Q: What sequence folds into this?
């Protein structure tokens, strides 16, 4: 089914929020998945897998020694985002991720941050995938990137439904009291 | 030589009470939109009309726009497809939770063919329950203001103009309850059309403008179906009538969630005000213009009647203060030096309504050589990410930011439950944003992140124990839960008009103040609060119609289609038994 980028952004943000992520991290995940889908990658599908095994509890499994930040247990929305923040603050240093999981989500986070902040992340090995033993990420400054023209995005309806169901957990059930306070309430509209 | 007057600081402007006293102004989006279509001499056409004798069926209204740079960025036709349906009175409701309407609309990118219109009929008439594609740019619906609509049709069918009284008091033939854009339900993302329609909410303004034209067409059409002697609604009445709207809490979260965009809007307004206040002198024409607008503002406030006791008391004060101002000006004309600053200063001991109405008047004083300042809100409001974290910042710098921009939080008594008595949330019912009572209603664990004072307090506590030289990135590794507020505060430091400097979850927060701020930027007028959570308004009231802009004969001022601030009801004698040529 065809969906808009804005729908992906907000549905994925809410789904991430419902899994226990904070608002800022859920927004980053929404932006990451939107970026992936605009690149033709199956970001929504990857997100459903990540949310299935969501673990959003601090503390972060991060060690910093000399010029390297090492992630011993990688959760893209937790250690991944924190490590990227750290690398941007320390552009001459590097991140090492041992036992990478949900690599596509991490790629989305990197891609979205590149787009926002005019940065380029470099990874070793270049063609890393989920399950790679260890990857290293470094940073270099680049010129502003041009916005790509919007593409039509199609999502598997089953995946989309799953995300919508998850997003729905962020909504509060309606009550008669809350209904009475909304716009248009309490007046006859046949005037 | 004295120092130039600076824009008013965010601590003064970004307070709920002041935001809740804003009036439309020359930077408002409807004004900008009318300027655009007037400059393009856009010609409205009705390529398809398939309405029955009762006005039910569908109709297409098309407006071609050249696009920025004289069409270099893609001139295009935009078509409002309107579906008019019979509606049981029992089902007519302005609530967003409604499922049927008198009329449903979509704005189509281009000119739709018969298959498009048939396919979209099933979707558009169900609004949020339908599914759309990127050729659909907006989605909307409206209900008739039933008494007025029927009275106007009946009068026109009898060959006479409607009574002025109901036209004046109601001010619109239909009112919308939602205009959806930017990717909702599969319609086009804003990014897809931003190069062609770069202004904030431009595509939504275009939609409402065309809905207004639809209402004029519909009353003329229905009257003509009833009688061969029917006349058309008079141009002055058409110009006075806008489109009604019921606006609730749905609009408020936008202001909190888009700080960079809100900063752009408010900053442009405050910069324009400072520019007017700094004008060293005024020409005779400018003084005349000022007096004309002040007189019009006074008449406008006299015509502004609402049932809400709080707002009506404010309007009465406004009327009295405008009278005082006018009398004072007779005795003591504006000073020779910086006359518009004098005008501004004379209101400073008056109510916020009067102060902000004066701001709208002063923004009309074109103190530049030409039109360069007329559109000085930055064009591309499509900030991919509203807030970008600066993880390299040091803790000491962040402390300074909190000190400079969040000092207002220090005045809050966090031990008092009233300080966080309310919470904002999204209801599962049509995803309507609502406000709940934290200590008596369920759902606060799902609240929107608007408890800014609480987040600031928590952040300050952690920062107080941190070394000033520590980077934010390191701080957030040990305190990941603070990242939202850190990012927000850093954004505020760069875009200081982007943060509302009041407690949005306190027991005394009046959401209607947020609504009015945004609606004033839209260009809405005649705010008519129905509670502290929702209001009725009029859109495009007093604006030139498509016919005005095409013929230029009937415009309020043929040389200035932009002169429609503070709409006034036309002199009844003008329209008695008059029909357009």
A:
């Amino acid at each position: 089914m065809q969906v808009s980028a804005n729908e992906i952004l907000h549905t994925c943000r809410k789904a991430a929020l419902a899994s226990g992520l904070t608002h800022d991290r859920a927004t980053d995940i929404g932006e990451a998945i939107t970026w992936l889908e605009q690149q033709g990658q199956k970001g929504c599908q990857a997100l459903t897998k990540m949310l299935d095994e969501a673990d959003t509890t601090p503390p972060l499994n991060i060690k910093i020694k000399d010029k390297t930040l090492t992630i011993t247990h990688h959760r893209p929305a937790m250690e991944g985002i924190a490590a990227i923040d750290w690398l941007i603050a320390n552009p001459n240093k590097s991140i090492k991720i041992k036992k990478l999981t949900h690599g596509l989500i991490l790629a989305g986070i990197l891609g979205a941050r590149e787009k926002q902040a005019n940065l380029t992340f470099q990874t070793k090995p270049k063609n890393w995938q989920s399950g790679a033993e260890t990857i290293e990420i470094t940073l270099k400054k680049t010129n502003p990137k041009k916005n790509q023209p919007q593409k039509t995005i199609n999502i598997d309806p089953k995946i989309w439904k799953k995300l919508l169901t998850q997003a729905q957990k962020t909504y509060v059930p309606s009550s008669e009291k809350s209904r009475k306070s909304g716009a248009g309430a309490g007046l006859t509209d046949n005037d | 030589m004295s120092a130039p007057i600076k824009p008013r600081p965010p601590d003064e402007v970004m307070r709920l009470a002041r935001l809740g006293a804003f009036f439309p102004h020359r930077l408002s989006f409807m004004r900008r939109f009318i300027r655009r279509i007037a400059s393009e001499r856009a010609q409205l056409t009705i390529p398809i009309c398939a309405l029955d004798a009762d006005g039910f069926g569908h109709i297409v209204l098309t407006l071609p726009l050249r696009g920025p740079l004289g069409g270099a960025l893609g001139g295009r036709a935009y078509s409002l497809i309107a579906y008019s349906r019979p509606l049981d009175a029992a089902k007519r409701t302005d609530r967003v939770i409604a499922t049927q309407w008198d009329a449903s609309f979509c704005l189509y990118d281009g000119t739709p063919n018969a298959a498009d219109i048939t396919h979209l009929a099933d979707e558009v008439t169900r609004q949020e329950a339908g599914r759309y594609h990127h050729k659909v740019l907006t989605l909307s619906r409206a209900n008739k203001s039933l008494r007025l609509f029927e009275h106007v049709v009946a009068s026109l069918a009898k060959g006479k103009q409607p009574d002025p009284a109901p036209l004046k008091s109601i001010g619109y033939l239909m009112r919308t309850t939602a205009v959806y854009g930017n990717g909702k339900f599969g319609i086009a993302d804003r990014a897809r059309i931003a190069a062609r329609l770069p202004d904030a909410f431009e595509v939504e303004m275009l939609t409402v403008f065309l809905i207004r034209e639809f209402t004029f067409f519909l009353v003329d059409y229905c009257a003509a179906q009833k009688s061969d002697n029917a006349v058309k609604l008079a141009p002055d009445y058409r110009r006075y009538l806008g489109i009604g709207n019921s606006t609730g809490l749905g609009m408020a979260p936008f202001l909190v969630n888009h700080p960079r965009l809100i900063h752009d809007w408010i900053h442009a307004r405050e910069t324009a005000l400072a520019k007017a206040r700094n004008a060293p002198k005024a020409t005779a024409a400018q003084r005349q213009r000022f007096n004309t607008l002040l007189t019009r503002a006074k008449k406008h406030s006299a015509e502004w009647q609402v049932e809400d006791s709080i707002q009506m008391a404010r309007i009465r004060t406004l009327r009295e203060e405008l009278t005082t101002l006018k009398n004072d000006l007779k005795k003591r004309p504006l000073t020779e030096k910086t006359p518009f600053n004098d005008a501004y200063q004379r209101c400073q001991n008056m109510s916020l309504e009067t102060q902000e109405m004066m701001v709208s008047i002063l923004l009309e004083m074109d103190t530049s050589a030409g039109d360069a300042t007329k559109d000085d809100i930055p064009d591309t409001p499509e900030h991919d990410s509203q807030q970008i974290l600066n993880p390299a910042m040091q803790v000491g710098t962040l402390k300074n930011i909190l000190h400079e921009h969040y000092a207002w939080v220090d005045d809050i008594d966090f031990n008092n439950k009233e300080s966080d008595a309310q919470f904002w949330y999204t209801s599962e019912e049509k995803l309507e944003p609502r406000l709940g009572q934290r200590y008596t209603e369920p759902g606060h664990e799902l609240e929107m992140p608007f408890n800014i004072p609480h987040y600031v307090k928590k952040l300050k506590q952690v920062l107080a124990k941190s070394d000033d030289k520590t980077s934010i990135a390191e701080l957030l590794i040990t305190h990941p839960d603070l990242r939202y507020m850190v990012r927000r505060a850093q954004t505020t430091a760069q875009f200081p008009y982007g943060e509302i400097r009041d407690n949005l979850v306190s027991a005394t927060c009046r959401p209607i103040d947020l609504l009015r701020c945004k609606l004033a930027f839209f260009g809405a007028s005649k705010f008519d609060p129905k509670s502290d959570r929702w209001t009725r308004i009029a859109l495009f009231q007093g604006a030139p119609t498509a016919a005005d802009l095409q013929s230029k004969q009937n415009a309020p001022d043929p040389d200035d289609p932009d002169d429609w601030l503070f709409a006034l009801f036309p002199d009844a004698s003008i329209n008695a038994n008059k029909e357009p040529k």
